[in-house]
């Protein structure tokens, strides 16, 4: 048994090492209900304050290496227009993006976040909350557990994720704004539901839910089927998050286009593994 995990996760409150403990069984049930209903579950104060400070410091130490992407982008994370589609098609709606990542391959070997991501206990706990097994850590070397940085005025427009499941760990909150908004299960495998997606992009709020995350909270999220965004950051403080990701396919990585647009570079693995998605959804 390693002792480092207990300096990161509040294991007294959330004894995730024992999935059969009554507290964890109850928590798993609650998370699964929320995930099935709303595509999203939140566990308050999951990360200890001292560990958050370490994560904050390791990100700030490398803040100069964060890749900021400022290209306008559509909800499917493409910035290239397709004139063959109807003019009002959601793929032809491009939105302003100002959002950055500290890529996972830049993390120190001893990184607090990297260590947490690599723990089997965390993977098994998340898998139980989702009610899906097996799930895998993401094979993408840039994106698998990247730190997300949104500076003042930063914005992350409506989009779907490439990976099925993400955790969001709030590290530092902005003074105002930076609210996570989402439209649960607006698409599903084999059904893009473009009509409803377009309504949201046009400003319809009927499906939109908001989630308020506090530093230390853990969010489990199914972002491939749920359209989501982060509203503009207001005030002087940046918003820091870590986004460890899990997938159903241990082989797949980001497409070369996504990797270039969002993480600022393409590695050989992105080219070697660039195949059509089995769920038939735009990516
Ligand atoms: Fe996302």
Largest sheet: 8 strands, antiparallel
**Mean pLDDT over the residues:** 95
* Low-confidence spans: none
What structural class should be given to the helix and strand makeup? alpha+beta
In sequence order, what are the helices and strands, one letter per element? HEHEEHHEEEEEEHEEEEEHH
Distance between the termini: 39 Å
Question: What gross morphology would you assign?
Answer: globular
The Cα radius of gyration reads 18 Å
Number of strands: 14
SS strand fraction? 15-25%
Q: Would you mind describing this structure in some detail?
A:
Helix content is 24%, strand content 21%. The protein is of the alpha+beta class and 283 residues long. The strands form three sheets. Strands 1, 2, 3, 4, 5, 7, 11 and 14 form an eight-stranded antiparallel β-sheet that branches. A four-stranded antiparallel β-sheet has the order 6-12-9-10, with helices on one face. A two-stranded antiparallel ribbon has the order 8-13. Helix 1 crosses helix 4. It is globular, with a radius of gyration of 18 Å. The termini are far apart. The mean pLDDT is 95. The chain binds fe (ii) ion. Residues 159, 161, 223, 228 line the site of fe (ii) ion. Fe (ii) ion binds at residues 159, 161, 223, 228.
């Amino acid at each position: 048994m390693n002792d480092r995990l207990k300096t990161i996760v509040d294991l007294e409150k959330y004894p995730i090492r024992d999935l059969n403990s009554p507290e964890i069984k109850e928590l798993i049930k609650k998370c699964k209900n929320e995930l099935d209903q709303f595509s999203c579950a939140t566990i308050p104060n999951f990360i200890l304050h001292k560990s958050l400070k370490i994560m904050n410091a390791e990100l700030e130490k490398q803040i100069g290496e964060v890749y900021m992407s400022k290209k306008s982008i559509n909800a499917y994370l493409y910035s290239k227009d397709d004139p063959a589609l109807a003019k009002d098609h959601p793929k032809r709606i491009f939105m302003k993006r100002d959002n950055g990542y500290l890529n996972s391959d830049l993390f120190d070997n001893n990184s607090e976040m990297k260590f947490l991501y690599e723990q089997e206990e965390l993977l098994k706990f998340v898998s139980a909350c989702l009610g899906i097994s097996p799930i895998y850590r993401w094979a993408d070397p840039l994106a698998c557990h990247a730190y997300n940085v949104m500076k003042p005025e930063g914005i992350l427009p409506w989009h779907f994720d490439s990976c099925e499941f993400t955790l969001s760990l709030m590290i530092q909150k902005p003074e105002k704004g930076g609210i996570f908004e989402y439209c649960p299960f607006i698409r599903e495998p084999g059904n893009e539901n473009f009509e409803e997606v377009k309504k949201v992009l046009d400003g319809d709020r009927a499906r939109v839910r908001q989630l308020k995350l506090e530093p230390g909270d853990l969010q489990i999220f199914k972002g491939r089927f749920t359209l989501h965004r982060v509203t503009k950051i207001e005030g002087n403080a940046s918003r820091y998050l870590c986004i460890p990701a899990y997938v159903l396919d241990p082989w797949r990585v980001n497409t070369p286009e996504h990797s270039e647009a969002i993480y600022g570079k393409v590695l050989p693995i992105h080219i070697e593994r660039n195949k059509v998605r089995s769920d038939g959804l735009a990516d």
